[in-house]
C-alpha cells in the first residue's frame, strides 16, 4: 500500500457524524498503518447563510471553532513521533457567499495546515439545496432544475466556479469529491455523459494548481458504489499532473483509511506528487 495519509477525516465536532473521539480516529489510523491524518471538519457556514437541511446540522457551529483548533493542537502533541496530525477544514463553496467565505478564511487560515474546498449546496430558483443530503431531496432538486442533466450541469458549473473563485490568500488548495453529484446514481441513472464536465474540472484544477480529494466514501454509499472521482478521471488527472490526495471522508473511526486499496494504484512512485 502506497497511501500513508488519510487527509479527509471528520470529528465529534460534526453534528451529523458520530460521537467517536479524535483519539478513536488517531488509533484507527495507527491500526490501519497510516503515518499521517488530516482532520477536516465541516467549517462553520457563513454568517447569515441558512443551512437548508432539516436539522441544520451540515457543519460545526461557529462558536466551536476555537475549541476545534485547540483539540487538533492537543492531538498533535499527544501523537508526536507516532502519527503526523494536521489541522484542516472542509470549507463549503457557496455560490453568492464568496465574500463571507473569504472573510472566514482570512480569520481561520493561519490556524490551518490543510483544507478542502467542497460543493454541497447548489443555488437554485427556489433557494439553496444541499445536494447530497438525501435521495428524496435530490429528487426535489431534479424537479426544481428541470432535469437530471441540469442538476449535473449546475453542480459541475459550481465546482468550476469554486476552482476559479477568489477566496483570498487562504483559499483551500484541494477540491473535495468532485463527482459528488453521482452519489445517488443507482436511483437516478444518467442518460448522458458527464465526463466532459469532469475533465473540465480537472483541467481547471491543473491550471489553478489545485489538488483533488480522492474520496472513497462513495464506494460505501449504496446508491453510488464508486469513488469520487472515478478511475477514468483519476487517469486524466495524473496525465495532467494534478496532485491526488486520498481521503476516506470518515464520519466514524472505523472508516479511517477505508477502501484505500481501491485507489492505491494511483498513488505509486511514478505519480508526480506522491504523498
Ligand atoms: Zn459530513
Ligand atoms: Zn464533503
UniProtKB/TrEMBL annotation:
Ordered alphabetically, the record's keywords are:
Amino-acid biosynthesis, Histidine biosynthesis, Hydrolase
Show where the PHP domain sits. 6-217
Q: Answer yes or no on keyword Protein biosynthesis.
A: no
Q: What is its EC number?
A: 3.1.3.15
User: Could you state a single Gene Ontology molecular function term?
Assistant: histidinol-phosphatase activity
Q: Which InterPro entries does the UniProt record give? A: Histidinol_P_phosphatase_HisJ, PHP_dom, Pol/histidinol_Pase-like
What is the main EC category here? hydrolase
**Which Gene3D superfamilies does the UniProt entry name for this protein?**
Metal-dependent hydrolases
Top-level lineage group:
Bacteria
Biochemical pathway? Amino-acid biosynthesis; L-histidine biosynthesis; L-histidine from 5-phospho-alpha-D-ribose 1-diphosphate: step 8/9
**What catalytic reaction does the record list?**
L-histidinol phosphate + H2O = L-histidinol + phosphate
Q: Which NCBIfam families match?
A: hisJ_fam, PRK08123.1
Write out the similarity annotation.
Belongs to the PHP hydrolase family. HisK subfamily.
In its UniProt entry, what is this protein called?
Answer: Histidinol-phosphatase
For this protein's source organism, the top of the classification is: Bacteria, Bacillati, Bacillota, Bacilli, Bacillales
Gene name tied to this protein: hisJ
Amino acid at each position: 500500500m502506497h497511501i500513508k495519509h488519510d487527509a479527509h477525516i471528520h470529528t465529534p465536532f460534526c453534528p451529523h457524524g458520530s460521537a467517536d473521539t479524535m483519539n478513536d480516529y488517531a488509533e484507527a489510523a495507527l491500526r490501519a498503518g497510516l503515518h499521517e491524518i488530516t482532520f477536516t471538519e465541516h467549517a462553520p457556514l457563513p454568517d447569515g447563510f441558512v443551512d437548508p437541511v432539516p436539522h441544520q446540522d451540515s457543519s460545526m457551529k461557529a462558536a466551536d471553532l476555537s475549541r476545534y483548533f485547540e483539540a487538533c493542537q492537543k492531538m498533535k502533541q499527544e501523537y508526536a513521533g507516532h502519527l503526523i496530525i494536521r489541522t484542516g477544514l472542509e470549507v463549503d463553496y457557496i455560490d453568492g457567499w464568496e465574500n463571507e467565505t473569504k472573510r472566514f478564511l482570512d480569520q481561520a487560515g493561519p490556524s490551518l495546515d490543510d483544507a478542502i474546498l467542497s460543493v454541497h449546496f447548489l443555488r437554485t430558483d427556489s433557494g439553496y439545496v444541499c445536494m447530497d443530503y438525501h435521495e428524496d431531496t435530490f429528487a426535489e432538486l431534479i424537479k426544481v432544475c428541470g432535469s437530471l442533466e441540469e442538476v449535473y450541469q449546475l453542480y459541475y458549473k459550481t465546482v468550476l466556479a469554486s476552482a476559479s473563485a477568489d477566496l483570498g490568500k487562504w483559499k483551500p488548495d484541494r477540491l473535495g469529491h468532485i463527482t459528488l453529484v453521482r452519489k445517488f446514481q443507482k436511483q437516478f441513472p444518467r442518460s448522458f455523459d458527464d465526463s466532459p464536465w469532469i475533465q473540465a474540472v480537472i483541467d481547471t484544477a491543473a491550471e489553478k494548481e489545485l489538488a483533488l480529494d480522492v474520496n472513497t466514501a462513495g464506494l460505501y454509499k449504496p446508491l453510488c458504489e464508486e469513488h469520487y472521482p472515478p478511475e477514468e478521471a483519476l487517469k486524466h488527472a495524473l496525465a495532467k499532473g494534478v496532485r491526488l490526495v486520498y481521503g476516506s471522508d470518515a464520519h466514524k473511526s472505523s472508516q479511517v483509511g477505508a477502501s484505500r486499496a481501491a485507489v492505491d494504484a494511483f498513488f505509486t512512485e511514478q505519480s508526480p506528487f506522491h504523498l
